[in-house]
Specification:
There is one protein chain. The chain is α+β, with helices and mostly antiparallel strands. It has one domain (about 15-75). Helix content is about 40%, strand content about 10%. The protein is built from 2 helices and 2 strands, in the order ααββ. Strands 1-2 form a two-stranded antiparallel sheet. The termini are far apart.
Length: about 80
């Protein structure tokens, strides 16, 4: 990292969201809360995993997601 002059570790950097990204996030979160099946697709590197990790963190913070040995469950 020092070689490139970066001061933050790449794992701790943020990301930029457009208004459209924020709306999609809200819509997906709402669909999940309603018990709907949600599929996420896109090109390699477009942010699918990042978006799902953010969604998971948000649902956990709102106490809507429970982690168990069998996976994650909505509460």
């Amino acid at each position: 990292m020092d070689f490139f002059g970066l001061t933050k570790d790449l794992r701790s950097v943020g990301y930029f969201e457009t208004n459209q990204d924020q709306q999609v996030f809200k819509d997906v979160k709402k669909a999940i809360k309603m018990g709907r099946l949600v599929a996420v697709s896109g090109m390699v590197g477009c942010g699918k995993t990042t978006a799902m990790r953010r969604l998971q963190e948000t649902l956990e913070q709102e106490s809507l997601l429970q982690n168990s040995s069998r996976g994650f469950f909505l509460t």
